[in-house]
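note to self: dont lose this again. the chain is below, predicted strucutre after it. 321 aa total, dont forget to put it in the shared folder this time
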Amino acid sequence: MKIRCLFVSMVLLVLICALPADAATVRVGVVLSIGGLEDESFNDAAYDGVQQLRKDGNCLVEVVEPGTISGIEPALEYFCQRDMDLVCAVGIFANDAVRKVSLEHPDKKFILLDSVVTSPNVLSILFDEEQGSFYAGAFAAMISKTGVVGFLGGMDSPVIAGFERGFKNGARFVNPEIKAISRYVGNTPEAFNMPDTAFNLGLDISQKGADVIYHAAGKSGLGLIDASRRGNFMVIGVDSDQSRIAPGKVPASMVKRLDLALVKAVGLYLKDNFSGGIWTMGLQDKGIELFLSRFNRNLITPEVHQKLREVEEFLLYKANH
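---
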């Protein structure tokens, strides 16, 4: 069932789970990040968690696609006014809105996925994207034939710079002589939703020799993957398994398990054990994983498998020491 709600002259799409509410049902409101559903990335990963909660049978979940940053705050306020048990927001662009609304509603419990707001009623869940990007970079270096790899970021920012840094370090861990080329789509949040620009940047990186390009560009990454169909390069996806977008062109994806994080957080509430604070999820607790595509099994030789195990052991050792 879909409901359209008007916030500050803005239409927000609300997807409502068709479950009857009762005393045992937890009611969850989820505000996605900008870009919306069908980004095959960040928002879709969070929505997988929504679907899992709905299947569990004891959750009624509503989802809002705000469209723009200015739509996030009224969407959070809407869920508070509807007296949801948990209100969840996704991504760094929700920070200011979560901080403000959580202070205005100290009796409400909030979840913030993949960013941090320090408030006693907000559970912030982070993902070690630098660790995951290291893994992606190592894999890129293993399968590169040219000795040149690429990175495409969305918005030029400290968060995305962490992806770039991890990727380059991972590539150099496997091949100290490898060359890494980096580009960013833009300097504003809109850079995560500019697939045409990403398409051209991807071709430019490829023309400079890169045969494997990793992206942290949200919906813009779809443009990069589209370019890979025409260019002589492959793409390592991000946030969710993107191999089905272009079978054979996306041999792996660095997946952040936003779905798992959301389900775990709601589980704490159901056990009456929910509290504010900060979690960081990584390889050690399956919050991060490198998903290998079934369409590129020919690339995953026994030697590559062995090297991947060594990289994972190295990262787990670092995480535990």
